[in-house]
Amino acid sequence: MPTMSETETLAEAYVASREDVLLVDALRAGDEAAFAEIVGRHGAVMLRVARLYVPTRAIAEEVVQEAWLGVLTGIERFEGRASFKTWLFRILTNVAKTRAEREGRSVPFSSLAQAELGADEAAVDPDRFIPQGERWASYWASSPRPFGNAPEQQLLSSETVAIVQRAIEMLPDVQRAVITMRDVAGFESEDVCESLQLSESNQRVLLHRARSKVRQALELHFEGAET
Hints:
Layout (H helix, E strand, L loop, with lengths): L3 H4 L10 H11 L3 H22 L3 H18 L9 H19 L6 H10 L33 H4 L2 H12 L3 H12 L4 H8 L3 H27 L1
Helix pairs in contact: 3-4, 3-5, 3-9, 4-5, 8-11, 9-11
């Protein structure tokens, strides 16, 4: 079972928000409604993150259940050195990494990242730039489509969300892990680096590549909607 020493570092300087304080107090008091609220708020994303580490959804569900048990048994030791969400997901990733080792995952994310970073991959399709030899070489031939003018209901529609989810699922392993943890789960960059054993610069490159691919999928989706 993860301990506080495994899930928090003394170097973190965090002042617990009032919401965190109230939530932790409710959990310590055995408030079932408070527990149901955080399960509803974080459960789906926890499953996505767990699935990054283990081979099947069924095992990921077991990881999430074990993480919730870790939360309930460890809540008395929560000291507010990190936000409750950060503490929660660190418990989850610790459980997931332990389970991945038990399931025989032999290749860590750090090794997979080197393979992805070594690939000759452009973050943006080179065809979108004016080719060398032309007057405006390397400038945009087809600039990125701005989404700011799209109606909010269109951006938040189930169809658009599904496009994003499919684009993320098609990413290489580590790019998928980084964008899921940063943009879906809301991890800070240092938490992602620690969890996936990546350097800050590598994490930044992988996130940029992942976001570019998801953005391209959205551009194609919105262009199709206008035709």
